[in-house]
Fold this protein.
Amino acid sequence: LSGMLALFERLAKQATEQGRAARVVYASSVAVLGESLPPSVDEHTLPRPTMSYGVHKLVGELILADWTRRGKLDGRALRLPGIVARPALSAGHGSAFMSQIFRAAQSGQSYTCPVSPSATVWWMSRRCCVDNLLHAGRMSAEGLHVGRVWTPPVLHLSVQEIV
């Protein structure tokens, strides 16, 4: 949280000096939504994070919306799912297995998946993620809703359907 706040504060200070709010596209997460979701999810779905990661992302959304309302920033937040086919990382973040499935299949290696075949996951490619972030950055501020949060379309598939 402290890094995000420091960045927002620096951008707000620059905005004051330059006379216009800096545009910020915040990579939030579907983790803000928590578990036991309805069949259809959008930006109006009530956030109920069940992990610290989701709480931190929600705090970022709320601060960004507040500072946008106050004219300190021109913020937009996208609730992103796990992004697949990203480079391998040593960090064991929760959605890393999604990319590892593809890397193992591509290299012909065996892979033991940490979730069951019936587990449903929200999938988005790296390219689609970048396109969504760029689109959010290009949107005119006029007419955007107050919350400034969007849940972009994703594939909602089981691991078995992917494999």
Q: What stands out?
A: The chain has a mean pLDDT of 88. Residues 67 and 73 are 6 Å apart (CA to CA). The chain has one domain: 2-162.
